[in-house]
Amino acid sequence: MASHPELKSRGKLMPPLLVLCGLHRTGTTLLYNLMACDPACRAPLYVEMIQPVPPLARSD
């Protein structure tokens, strides 16, 4: 922040993002579930993972 003072004027910064991925049977589901128990973390819902962008609304 000290080297980029213009960031202070933009307001609150986005919290850090963590993408969890790995091969099957390596413990990624366990790690996901453990992190989801922490109130400081927000785990995505299943529907958000299978369809990250909602479909466009039709204009009939």
Architecture overview:
The chain is mostly helical and 60 residues long. It has one domain (5-50). Helices cover 30% and strands 0% of the residues. The protein has 3 helices and no strands. The chain has helices at residues 6-9, 28-36, 46-50. The chain is flat and about 45 Å long. The mean pLDDT is 82.
Given as residue ranges, the uncertain stretches (5+ residues, pLDDT < 50) are: none
Structural class: mainly alpha
Give the count of structural domains.
1
Rough outline: flat
Could you state the order of secondary-structure elements as H and E? HHH
What integer is the average pLDDT?
82
| Major beta sheet summary | none
Rg calculated over all Cα atoms: 17 Å
Secondary structure tally, helices = 3
What is the terminal-to-terminal distance?
Answer: 48 Å
From the structure above, extract its key features.
60 residues; mainly alpha; 30% helix
List the helices and strands and how they pair.
Layout: H1 6-9, H2 28-36, H3 46-50
Q: In summary, what is this structure?
A:
It is built from 3 helices and no strands.
